[in-house]
């Protein structure tokens, strides 16, 4: 092999590696699969994953890429060792990724490659992905709200071949612990409970008999039975039944005063972030003053599916998940659509002991 041919081969192989990353970033799975020989293999032993042949590589990638909120892969030049019509080499990879259910990572890895010259061009005979560093801490940056590209490193296969995750899926135990720790650091009391039944019992402990209690218009409270416990039976001075008894045409001021400063407000939230913030959304805003600080004490019951990485994702969850479901409920109950006219973000609790967040390991409400 002359020097000119060797240089040309190296340039073509380097272009092949760049084409792989471009196809991954542009979500072009057929193009990515075409970069392999017909019997080519993509292997990730750490998962483990093994995709053999162009069809498996294409189908596996298309099945997985729908899980991503965003994905960024950068390829750095490595080595190339030529041997006639075959070659070996290494490429160095950096990845940033976040899934729709909030998992995220910063990753450094090495592709160990085998290449083969074909009638068309150089192709991958094999790519083996070796993880060198993995950080699953929440990412500090943000990304566009539409789902972007998806890669083919271990980030793509951490969920196996399961259906695309969504804002309805419960957070992992690790993410619940992370959110609880952040909430405590921000002045909230935070407890992790198994399920709605445990929350129902805990609310009975937290809210003393005879206390004035306002409940939010929450599916979590309704489905768990907490709404019925607080507003029926006479154990508490329930604010909501009193509000419903007031003539709305003539008693608007009375209603406003009743809901603004109860002894206790018990509610849910639209999202809780792993950085320790609570996000509430409302059409009228009537229940927000009590949650913000008007109530002497607050208790929020939060299903595991409401845990998100950061505030940006929380706002997406409000618009893309909670609002459509609440809109359907409002149409059925009130005959008119809902809207996110008011947003309340609680980043910290300046009065320790006022606010308690009960994080559930199960999903409930929306």
- How helical, in percent, are the residues? 25-40%
Q: Which sequence of SSEs, written as H and E, runs from N to C?
A: HHEEHEEEEHEHEHHEHHEEEHEEHEE
Mean pLDDT: 87
Distance between the termini: 65 Å
Structural class: alpha/beta
Strand order of the largest sheet: 2-1-6-5-4-3
Describe the main β-sheet briefly: 6 strands, mixed
Low-confidence stretches: 145-165
Radius of gyration, in angstroms, nearest whole number: 27 Å
Brief write-up:
By secondary structure, this protein is α/β, with parallel strands linked by helices.
Keywords:
366 residues, alpha/beta, six-stranded parallel sheet, 11 helices, 34% helix
Describe the structure.
A hairpin with a 4-residue loop joins strand 5 (104-117) and strand 6 (122-135). By secondary structure, this protein is an alpha/beta fold. It is 34% helix and 31% strand. The chain starts with a helix and ends in a 6-residue tail after the last strand. A 6-stranded mixed β-sheet has the order 2-1-6-5-4-3. It has a 6-stranded parallel β-sheet with strand order 7-16-13-10-8-9, with helices on both faces. Strands 14-11-12-15 form a 4-stranded mixed β-sheet, sandwiched between helices.
